[in-house]
Amino acid sequence: MATFFGEVVSAFSRAVDEEEEDEDEEIRRELAGRRDVTIQWSSESRSSTDNSASLSIPCSTFLVAVGENAAGFLKSFVQCCGSWELVGAVTLGNERVHRQHTSEKQFPADSSCLLYRLTSDPTILSCHCTCHVAEDQLFHWAEKVFETIQKRNLSVIVLSSSSVTEYKSSRSIPSIPVPFLRALKTNTLQELPQCQLLEQPNVISGLPAAVLTHCQVQQIPAVLYHCYSDVAALDTLTVEAFKPVLASRSLKSFVKVTTQSAEILQQLVDANKIQSNLYT
Fold first, then answer.
1. What is 218-266 written as a DSSP string?
2. What residues does 227 pair with on adjacent strands?
3. Which residues contact 150 (CB under 8 A, 6 or more apart)?
4. Is residue 156 within 8 Å of residue 211, measured between CB atoms?
5. Under 8 Å between Cβ of 57 and 48
6. Rg of the chain's alpha carbons, rounded to an integer?
7. Which residues, other chains included, contact 75 with Cβ-Cβ below 8 Å and sequence gap of 6+?
8. Are 218 and 146 in contact (CB under 8 A)?
9. For a 10 Å CB count at each end of the chain, is N or C smaller?
10. d(CA 24, CA 13)
């Protein structure tokens, strides 16, 4: 269509506008779905909430391992003590896992965020999260997980690691033995951390920070142990750097020193190397 001055003007159609609005709405729904965080518990763990007024999972100690090295520490030095059972899974909307319909007791085998509990004391839970949680999912992850766990008499231990290049210090970095631990805690934690507190101006980001922040706001006693390492992959020295955590009051009650830990850790490292070679 041309105007009096010869300018070509596009003709707008209401039908086209509505089509574009529908497409935009569909895109928004898809993006929102990718940010979804869902948590699934086994029927056995849910049945333990029947006598609870809050209908949440009973929990006295909650261990959260973020990353391969932190999860490797729980597997080799904590979960080697006693019998642990898989009781839940946290799934991210953008995570590529097989969501086939299975029985309530089964979870996606390739899910990278799994929940376990100690069979001799079902109030002790652990979470292994080895996937990347996007920035816009962090708040939802912490909120979703903690809304299903009893907060009364709950204590939380978070384990994570990162490159030593992220560490800021007035000292020369090469003069600091690597790997090493630093800690952050909430105001309600009464126990002293098992290592030096993280110095300013260092900051922790990602899921470990989101979990600790959630605990601070909800007044849940919690401590974060962060390992600075010069190795990014699953590494024996990095995993063993978490060993001071075993002296924590909440862990000493059920974790016993065993010679199996070194063997389990070596198996994990070897398996990780094989898997890495398959994808290179």
1. TT--EEEEEEEES--S--HHHHHTTGGGGGSHHHHTT----THHHHHHH
2. 161, 181
3. 52, 54, 56, 57, 58, 59
4. yes
5. yes
6. 23
7. 128, 264, 268
8. yes
9. C
10. 17
User: What confidence tens digit (pLDDT) does each residue in 201-247 have?
Assistant: 999 999 999 999 999 999 999 999 999 999 989 999 999 999 999 99
pLDDT at 110: 54
27-54 pLDDT, tens digit per residue, is 555 555 456 888 888 877 655 544 444 4
Q: Contact at 8 Å (CB) between 1 and 13? A: no
DSSP letter at 137 equals G
One-letter amino acid at 216 equals Q
pLDDT at position 221 is: 97
Please report which residue ranges of 149-235 form alpha helices under DSSP H. Answer: 206-217
CA dist list (Å): 202 to 30, 144, 158, 254: 36, 28, 17, 33
Token pair of 239, please?
Answer: 């995993």
Q: How confident is the model at residue 14 (pLDDT cuts 50, 70, 90)?
A: low
Choose among 215, 163, 226, 234: nearest CA to 193.
226
Tokens of 40: 């699934």
